[in-house]
Design brief:
Number of strands: 4
CATH architecture: 3-Layer(aba) Sandwich
Largest sheet: 2 strands, parallel
Strand order of the largest sheet: 1-2
Number of helices: 8
Structural class: mainly alpha
Order of helices and strands: HEHEHHEHHEHH
Length: 213
């Protein structure tokens, strides 16, 4: 979705996808197809195996929570939290942006549907921009990379409506934390539940295939 926003803003798209040992590897294929459909100038898939660090249901054997009501999804940090993932991802994106002399990083963080991840909050993102101003060549030379988070304060339903208005390929998007072996979304993890609720509130049907919904 955030890629479609960047294209709408008139940006030349250089996409970065991290293959970090996540159990939802199906998102990698979706990212490749998204790059083709949206006409990206380049798409770098960077291997980064965070399974060696562990401590997350997304990179280890710990079970992904299923069928949690909304009140549980908004309380505490869930086991799907990957230690410092967004800090690692944004640092790599900033390094790549410097090599491209890019001025912006588009990042799809969302705080309204926040599920307990501390690295999706506005204060975290503003602090990271300060890190880039102080700790990169571009920053100290007065050309700091800006982190754009156009989805940050939007509800899931509003994000879906935006996607429809931009003709974004929503059928290529992937949210599930625990897909089946053939890539179908489980329909029961926190991410699937939030996504399905968003489509219902937007008054439209999710185009992806679910095992259970």
């Amino acid at each position: 979705m955030v890629t479609a926003v960047a294209k709408h803003d008139g940006c030349v798209l250089h996409l970065l996808t991290l293959s970090y040992g996540q159990r939802h590897q199906v998102e990698l294929e979706g990212a490749k197809r998204m790059a083709q459909v949206l006409g990206a100038a380049s798409h770098l898939v960077l291997p980064l195996d965070l399974r060696a660090i562990g401590a997350s249901a997304l990179t280890g054997q710990q079970a992904v929570p299923k069928d949690r009501p909304a009140r549980e999804r908004t309380g505490g940090i869930p086991p799907t939290y990957v230690p410092a993932r967004n800090t690692i991802f944004l640092a790599l994106a900033a390094a790549y942006a410097e090599t491209l002399k890019a001025s912006r990083i588009y990042f799809g963080a969302n705080v309204i549907d926040y599920s307990g991840y501390p690295d999706c909050r506005p204060e975290y993102l503003r602090a990271f921009e300060q890190v880039l101003r102080l700790g990169t060549k571009a920053g100290v030379e007065g050309r700091p990379v800006e982190i754009k988070t156009p989805l940050l304060m939007m509800t899931k339903a509003d994000i879906i409506r935006l996607g429809l208005s931009l003709a974004a390929p929503l059928h290529l998007t992937h949210s599930c934390y625990d897909p089946s072996a053939d890539g179908k979304a489980c329909g029961r993890c926190d991410s699937c539940l939030i996504r399905l609720e968003g489509f219902r509130e937007a008054g439209t049907t999710d185009p992806i295939v679910y095992v259970s919904a």
